[in-house]
Specification:
The chain has about 350 residues and is an alpha+beta fold. The protein is about 40% helix and about 20% strand. Strands 1-4-5-9-8-7-6 form a seven-stranded mixed beta sheet. Strands 2-3 form a two-stranded antiparallel ribbon. A hairpin with a 2-residue loop joins strand 6 (about 255-260) and strand 7 (about 265-275). Helix 5 (about 110-120) crosses helix 10.
Length: about 350
């Protein structure tokens, strides 16, 4: 009896893990534990045994059964997994996103930046970027902004303690670092890197020590535009502005320049625009940004000859444009991340 049971166990252990189909597993288990199976046959012998031998025989058969049954279950599970993997091609790709996962949306400021960059990409501009942390030279000196200019005042510019910034990266490492107060510093970085001609748009963060209210934020976003080539004129700047505001606010948009002053442009202007599609603000001049022809001193500071090259630059506030386009009344909406506000820009 014991030998027979061991034979049946050995057979189950060798056949079941190698069975290829559920049918094979079913046939093997029928052969062992089915009504006409070998183990069942042994159980039927028990009543014919001597009374004293019956309990031991029954125990052995039950032990064998308890070992064989899990082998059968495992074989079925293994084959099912193999068939599933085959149906899915290779093994299932667990990195695929869950189709039920809620999808986020792009932030309205990102959407505004992309929209404006797309408008200028059509005119051959590329996107340039630089760091938020700058030295005074890139942010001011190179931009023809003297040491006594109010923009450099610690009151409205965020300087870094000298020791917190590693003296590496630039040849101006011995200077004070600051969070750039405008994106105009990217003009300098881009011209030093690429030379001229150059046509870039530089979106990014700018920082000023401002008290936060409905229209002010200490951290806001600007898009800098710079175009330098031979023979770039004021009329090219005006044409670019007309193109920008018609693209943003429709064909009815008008643009005008008012004389102004920036140390890095000469002449300098404030840009006003007017549009028929702006609700309460329709058909009124709205001051929107600063611009001008790049000052010859700025070109000299980056090694370009102002007798050969000329160009224009402007700096546009992203929040301001987004607020006008979407009639948003408070700049703080952009930063508090209330999903009820953000979802309105999902386009879904
Ligand atoms: N950097 C200026 C500002 O932040 C804007 C500007 C950019 C003006 C380029 C002229 C040319 O106010």
């Amino acid at each position: 009896m014991e030998n027979k049971i061991n034979d049946i166990l050995a057979k189950a252990k060798s056949l079941l893990p190698n069975a290829k189909t559920k049918g094979e597993v079913a046939a093997i288990s029928a052969d062992i534990t089915g009504p006409n199976g070998s183990l069942t046959a042994l159980m039927k012998i028990i009543p014919t045994l001597e009374k004293s031998q019956r309990p031991a025989a029954g125990k052995m058969i039950n032990m064998a059964k308890s070992q064989i049954e899990p082998l059968i279950t495992q074989a079925y599970a293994r084959i099912e997994n193999e068939q599933m993997a085959q149906a899915l091609g290779e093994s299932p790709d667990i990195t695929l996103p869950n189709i039920d996962a809620p999808m986020g949306t792009l932030h309205p400021l990102t959407l505004t930046i992309r929209k404006i960059c797309d408008i200028f990409k059509k005119a051959g501009f590329t996107v340039a970027e630089a760091t938020d942390l700058e030295t005074e030279w890139f942010c001011f000196d190179a931009l023809n902004t003297p040491a006594d200019h109010p923009a450099r005042d610690a009151q409205d510019t965020l300087f870094m303690p000298r020791q917190t910034v590693a003296a590496n990266v630039t040849k101006h490492a011995d200077e004070l670092y600051l969070l750039r107060s405008h994106t105009s510093s990217v003009q300098i970085r881009a011209m030093l890197k690429e030379g001229a001609p150059i046509k870039i748009l530089a979106p990014g963060r700018a920082f000023r020590r401002d008290t936060v209210d409905a229209t002010h934020s200490a951290n806001f976003h600007q898009i800098e535009c710079l175009y330098i080539d031979k023979d770039v004129r004021l009329t090219d700047l005006k044409a670019a502005l007309v193109y920008l505001f018609k693209s943003l606010f429709g064909e009815s948009a008008k643009t005008r320049l008012r004389p102004s002053f920036f140390p890095f442009t000469e002449p300098s202007f404030e840009v006003d625009f007017m549009s028929a599609n702006l609700g309460k603000l329709s058909n009124k001049w709205i001051e929107i940004m600063g611009c001008g022809m790049v000052d010859p001193n700025v070109l000299k500071n980056v090694g370009l000859d102002p007798d050969v090259y000329s160009g224009y630059a402007f700096g546009l506030g992203v929040e301001r444009v987004a607020m006008l386009v979407h009639s948003i009344d408070d700049i703080r909406h952009f930063y508090t991340n209330d999903v009820r506000f953000l979802r309105q820009f999902s386009g879904r």
